[in-house]
Amino acid sequence: MEKVKYLILGAGPTGLTFANRLKDLGETDFLLLEKEEEAGGLCRSTMVDGSPFDIGGGHFLDVRRPNVNTFLFRFMPREEWTLYTRDSRIRVDGAQVGHPLEANIWQFDLTTQVAYLTSIAKAGCNLDQPMPERFVEWIVWKLGQRIADHYMLPYNRKMFADDLNELGTYWLEKLPNVSFEETLLSCLTHKPYGTQPGHASFYYPKRHGYGEVWRRMAKEVAPKVLYGEEAVVLDCENRSVRTRTGDVFEAEHVITTVPWRSFTQIIGMPDKLRELVAGLRYSAIETRYVPEQLDTAAQWIYEPDPQVPWHRILVRHNFCPGSRGYWLETRKERTAMFADTAETYHYLNAYAYPLNTIGKPEAMKKLLSFCEARQIYGLGRWGEHCHYNSDVVVELAMQAARRLAQL
Questions:
Q1: Where are the alpha helices (DSSP H) in 226-359?
Q2: Helix H or strand E encompassing 98
Q3: Domain 2-86+202-282+353-405 sits in which CATH superfamily?
Q4: CA–CA separation, 280 vs 260, rounded Å?
Q5: Whose CA is closest to 123, among 110, 112, 138?
Q6: Mean pLDDT of the chain
């Protein structure tokens, strides 16, 4: 049994940031366990057809957290990144319009604009009706029946779950907020109004995939990273972890950034909490390479049509110079719609998106509270089971390293 002060499960963006911040703070008694043979987690990159392919799909560095950017630029300097203004679009009603839809209705023909505006004007939020608690009703209440039927509901079914009412509404505040008045104004002036969506401006490496920055971060703590070590048993009583290879590691503090559902056994946890872990939902997403060029300036395109397998296209030649082709993102349950699986490069991410199901915040609060009392900390997208982007988990890990180092 190996004993360390800090045992970090997962060498993705969260775990790598936590480890490097410990190193910055003068701490050397830590170890990272990573099940893969390389670091980066969902943000790993590989080479396909002579160009980088991000196996986790569309991951970009948002500009809204300067402290995060400054930290990451230590490992991959600013001059190795290109700053882009986001161009994302939606294929709907026979057209391709900007995202978010409610800010870009002016891009439709006049008849379609009137239909959308009429629907939005009748939305419950614009008629002072009480906010519903069920997901489907909330979408209609917020955006109107037409946006719900033509875009939001079919798209979310494709990306997350067939039964959308399994999802809560507590997370929908992250949707771009565009009022009816702003929607009307955008139609009259032919430009978008309202809150900008995430990644309105973003950085992407000039000569590499997004996985490059995490690979370099792993090199900075290389002696402390053990690859091919998948944590399968978590012992809450002894703060120890057994890996699939049979190795056992014990620590004063365990920081888990891996999915709670990925443990085959959790020892020393009450049955009720184990049931909460078993109830955590997530989606698996396949990324797929298509060698054709698309005649578009968009970096990514949302596809709500239920007859089309994928829900998003990443047009890599529009953010990764010199690249060919594009990537598709498809929920695992829909990949059977493809006929050429064996002939096309594709990668299945078994854990892609934590699902924001009803009751999840309360369940995670109980789980994390129990574990923290035993110096076991869930951190990041999977440790907290929240749909965080990479810049968010870096910031959370920076803060957590500072806080735990002071204990």
A1: 271-278
A2: strand 95-98
A3: NAD(P)-binding Rossmann-like Domain (3.40.50.720)
A4: 8
A5: 138
A6: 94
